[in-house]
Amino acid sequence: MYSMYYTLHNKRRISNIIYIYHFTQKSSIIKSMNKTTPEVSVIIPVYNVESYLSRCLDSIINNTYTDLEIICVNDGSTDHSLNILQEYAAKDGRVIIIDQPNGGCYSARNAGLAAARGRYIAFIDADDWIHQMYFEILMHYMKHYGSDITICGWKKTEDIVSDKPFEISQVSCYTVTGMQALDNYSVTHGYVWARIYTRECVDNHLFHNITVMDDAAFNIDVLASKEDITCTVCDAKLYYYFQRAGSMVSRFSSKVYMQVSQYYYSQMTQLTSAWANYVYALETLKNCFLYRYNQSFEPATDNTGFDYKTLMKNALRTLKTSSYSSFSQNAVYTLLTRFPLLYRLFRIIQDPTMLDWEKKQKANNRKKA
Q: Taking residues 61-80, what's their average pLDDT?
């Protein structure tokens, strides 16, 4: 048997991937290289997850849908993660290892995208796992509706759960257009797992080093690049999200929203597509609102010089002149821009747990004072 490695020597130029093969039977590697194009490329960034990696890989390898290549990007792990990957690559020819110096999750995903050969692209985090029919159900509805993206439900859990059997015909799905997707939390939420993309949909897109919001930025980039994009959303909870100690938390600091606002604003000012300008103007406003809201509950120590008011003003002007924006939408965003308390009320109505978060933030600030 053999194991296959890709070593990334230049993190910024993905094209500089050198292929290094370690094998004992030359015929085995030739057979692997002559394989037909896999249907789905599964990209898994791996960094110090030795306690969870086998669970993740087993759930993928044992899926009822088998036409996969499983691209595992070892992002400079210092534990035994690489050894575990080597063991799986020796047992299953679909497992491909890319070994690169630590560059962060965004860098690992970009390396996986550069190596992917599949007609469809899926991302799975190495400490999560999936239902045994994950790919079968998602691919069925991807092809049934002819969508660019197909999304499933997910379950946050700290325990091993037994797979609930699904009849494909009993899974409830609906489709949304690009315009509808912008206001659909399932589509734009900040993750790239629990979904499958067509290759055409993600071609020419990369992940950017935007702290923990690179997932959301990637999804917005995809939506902005194609006005007539279609997304299918299925209600079946097929992805198991494991939030371990030390992983990123769901409440972000204002600095995160500052960085992502700046990214969306730069995209808005650089691109000429009317659709893209509309999408990035909306996202600039949304994240400036979040920045302003979070800042009001953080210690006044921000010396970054971030001028969110200018970004909001210019993004709102772009929104108002866009043919995609309605009078009512312009009115709502104008009010939210001018009246921070109105936005706070809007957030609390959307998510009442924000009140608890506010209380905790105020208590923490009093302790630090």
A: 96
* 179 and 231 belong to one structural domain: yes
Q: What percent of the chain has pLDDT over 90?
A: 64
DSSP state of 16: -
pTM: 0.85
Rounded Cα gap, residues 274 and 292, in angstroms: 27
Nearest-angstrom CA–CA distance, 293 and 231: 30
CATH of the domain at 134: 3.90.550.10
Residue linked to tokens 């946050």: 156
Q: Is 357 found in the same domain as 306?
A: yes
318 within 8 A of 273, measured Cβ to Cβ: no
CA 119 to chain centre: 19
Chain centroid to CA 41: 15
Three-class secondary structure of residue 287 per DSSP: helix
Q: In the numeric block, which tokens belong to residue 145?
A: 């509706």
The total of other beta-carbon atoms located within 10 Å of residue 290's CB is 20
- pLDDT for 81-136, tens place per residue? 999 999 999 999 999 999 999 999 999 999 999 999 999 999 999 999 999 999 99
Handedness of CA 140, 145, 146, 148 (dihedral sign): negative
Cβ neighbours around 274 below 10 Å, total: 14
Does any domain span residue 13? Answer: yes
Confidence bin at 333 (pLDDT 50/70/90): very high
Interval 272-316: pLDDT, tens: 899 999 999 999 999 999 999 988 888 765 556 789 999 999 999
Beta bridge partners of 68: 40
160 in the same domain as 89: yes
Do 296 and 149 lie in one domain? The reply is no
- Same domain as 295, residue 273: yes
DSSP string computed for 229-280: -EEEEEEEEEEEE---TTSPPSSPPHHHHHHHHHHHHHHHHH---HHHHHHH
Give a yes or no: residue 35 inside a domain: yes
User: Are both 41 and 17 inside the same structural domain?
Assistant: yes
> Is there a single domain that holds both residue 236 and residue 258?
no
Range of the domain at 40: 2-241
